[in-house]
Amino acid sequence: MPQLSTVFRKLEEGSKRLTPQRELVIRIFADHPGEHLSAEEVHHLVKKEFADIGLATVYRALELLTDLNILQRISFNDGKARYEFNQEELHRHHHLVCLRCGKVDEFNEDLLDPLEERIFQQRGFKVLDHELKLYGICKSCAKNARTRG
Amino acid sequence: MPQLSTVFRKLEEGSKRLTPQRELVIRIFADHPGEHLSAEEVHHLVKKEFADIGLATVYRALELLTDLNILQRISFNDGKARYEFNQEELHRHHHLVCLRCGKVDEFNEDLLDPLEERIFQQRGFKVLDHELKLYGICKSCAKNARTRG
DNA sequence: CTACGTGCAAACAGTTTGCAGTGCG
DNA sequence: CGCACTGCAAACTGTTTGCACGTAG
User: Fold this and answer.
1) Residue ranges with strand state E in A23-89
2) N or C, which terminus of chain B has less Cβ within 10 Å?
3) Residues forming CATH 1.10.10.10 domain(s) in chain A
4) Which nucleotide is nearest to B15 (CA to C1')?
């Protein structure tokens, strides 16, 4: 979760402004740690405090913040993009997606480093980023299935 | 890559028919091993042999074949879904996506098994499937950058 | 004859873009 | 003043659906 001053510097470097709309979008993510918000969800949340913000503005803010590496765009294959703060420790930050209830949890793991090193040695492919998603059934869904069945 | 007889059995179980269109869609994947085709690409390829097949039919065939676990739907965050044969050894089958030229390569690795076991022990989350994507720069793009720069 | 399958066109959802107006730097 | 930024509506892309017709079982 970036400092506002960092955000401000990054914006200035590209002579971009920290408008109220953009600041609000950032605050929404600060207020919803660990969530993976879609553009529509962000729009909905921002609207509570800034009634007439346009959806396009939200999209443009999300794009800008993603370009500045303040946000990270991810997809869980449900047809819409989602966003979260671009954690520096992204390389150790993965997702557990429950196929039944849709809940997305996170976990940290550094076991990919040796693999990426080996891939570079063997194929010359330099890994810059990665994405590991584990799909399955979460604890509470498994319990419910047992109880009900 | 499934036997046609397997496909036929799976279709019969759901009283679905192996129409020429569906058979062609399957053949397209057989003829393009290792590729990750979008619906539009499949449509384009099928059209060469069956001129007036509709795009909707392709979508419906892809959905059906995915439901039957003959195909697997994947996404590389480029806004469109892609498909490939659902390899049984999927659990060892991951993707290297070049951020410069977009080429998608594959690699196999079984190092996730112990991790998944640990996640089940620690959190009760039962992993059924997973998706590992490594984003970076492929060998030839890295070489071109060096040559040109 | 019924249920499945098809092509076509229209509908849809998420996202992007063109444009006229606003206001910071 | 100039350029970044905005809201709105229209455009666009990938995908799904409704419908009338065809055909396999």
Assistant:
1) 37-38, 71-75, 81-85
2) C
3) 1-90
4) C4
pLDDT in tens, A84-109: 998 765 556 788 888 778 788 888 77
pLDDT digit string (tens) for B115-142? 888 889 989 999 888 888 888 888 888 8
**Spatial distance between the Cα atoms of B6 and B70, rounded to a whole number of angstroms:** 9
Q: How far is CA B7 from CA A101, B28, B57, B67, B114, in A?
A: 30, 14, 18, 12, 33
Contact between residue B7 and residue B70 where contact means Cβ atoms under 8 Å apart: yes
Q: Closest residue by Cα to the C1' atom of nucleotide D7? A: A54
Q: What is the pTM of this model?
A: 0.79
Task: For residue range A19-69, list pLDDT tens digits in order.
Answer: 999 999 999 999 998 899 999 999 999 999 999 999 999 999 999 999 998
User: Å between B112 CA and C23 C1'?
Assistant: 54
| Interchain proximity A116–B134, CB inside 8 Å | yes
Q: Does domain B1-90 have CATH number 3.40.30.10?
A: no
- State whether CATH 3.30.1490.190 applies to domain B92-149: yes
